[in-house]
Amino acid sequence: MSLSQGKPKPFIPLRPLRKGGTIGVFSPSSPPVAENTAQGVRYLESLGYRVVLSPNYSQHEDYLAGSGEQRAGDLMGLICNDTIDAIFCTRGGFGSFMMLPFLDFEAIRKARKLILGFSDVTALQWAVYAKTGLPSISAGMVATDLSYPARDPQFESFFWELIESGHTNCTFQNTLSHAEEQDGVASCEGISMPGTMSVAAMLLGTKWFPVLENCIPILEDVDEPRHKVEAYLTQLILGGHFAACPAVVFGQFTDASVQGYPEVPELHTIFRRATQKSSLKVLQGIDYGHIPGKISLPLGVPISVSLGSTSILRTRQSIFES
């Protein structure tokens, strides 16, 4: 039985970010490198968008971009500013979950603005979904992927396709395929829940962890030793959080430089071992993770996933209102 509170939320489409619209930028986690932020802002402005930086986006408090209350204040300022059409994060790092007690989730729900972030921003995005049902976008950010002089073509293509159309359609080689049972014949449907697994695990036991009934978690991670990857995944399963999920999709798990044990299993061994006693459909291999060519994914949106050795993940509904 899951410890998550409440019921699954109905889908609420966001207000779209139009060409030439205004993007508010803030730092929900760790402080960004100033020049990286400037480069990302210049890139967005070169495409015709207006960019507004929040007051505390460059604050430093150890490894945090200001206190949780300051960062929450920056977000709520952008939420309540009617001239802001969408909100992009500067970077991840650590600490977005510290904002959660200071957020006005009802105001966030009413505003229906896109919040775009990745990695540590998983905590903020999953909490917003848990409390409001609002979708968001898990994608590269202003002071990271958008700041690179040579942006990866795959990243850029999927990023703007999702921003401009509200849809995504991604084909990937499923390296955990039960091809003899599923190839070319079956698919499953559910609500997309992309995120960084270790960050999602930080919300366990809190009122901000979402009900995952009928959701399809799409998980990635970075710099986590293999035994911790297995621990986070097993914790989510033992807690009952995946009990009503039709499938789970594993993206790219960038290895830690130092493993905790000399015997290190392959990732597919970990994924199979952790899920073997569940009824979950399990897929691995989508280009979602801490990689230059990361695809952008909507969170909280109806999707379908085919279950063959070549799998297709596609949105069934736009993240944006018509």
UniProtKB/TrEMBL annotation:
Record GO biological process: proteolysis
Q: Where is the LD-carboxypeptidase N-terminal domain?
A: 23-138
Which CDD domains does this UniProt record tie to the protein?
Answer: Peptidase_S66
The entry lists its GO molecular-function terms as: carboxypeptidase activity; serine-type peptidase activity
Give the UniProt keywords, A-Z.
Carboxypeptidase, Hydrolase, Protease, Serine protease
Q: Name one Pfam family in it.
A: Peptidase_S66
Please list the residue ranges annotated as the LD-carboxypeptidase C-terminal domain. 189-304
What are the catalytic residues? 119, 220, 290
Please name the InterPro entries in this protein's record: Carboxypeptidase_A_C_sf (IPR027461), Class_I_gatase-like (IPR029062), LdcA_N (IPR027478), Peptidase_S66_N (IPR040449), Peptidase_S66C (IPR040921), S66_fam (IPR003507)
- By its UniProt entry, which SUPFAM superfamilies does this protein fall under? Class I glutamine amidotransferase-like, LD-carboxypeptidase A C-terminal domain-like
Q: Organism's domain of life? A: Bacteria
Protein family according to the UniProt entry: Belongs to the peptidase S66 family.
State what protein this is by name.
Muramoyltetrapeptide carboxypeptidase
Native organism is: Cyclonatronum proteinivorum
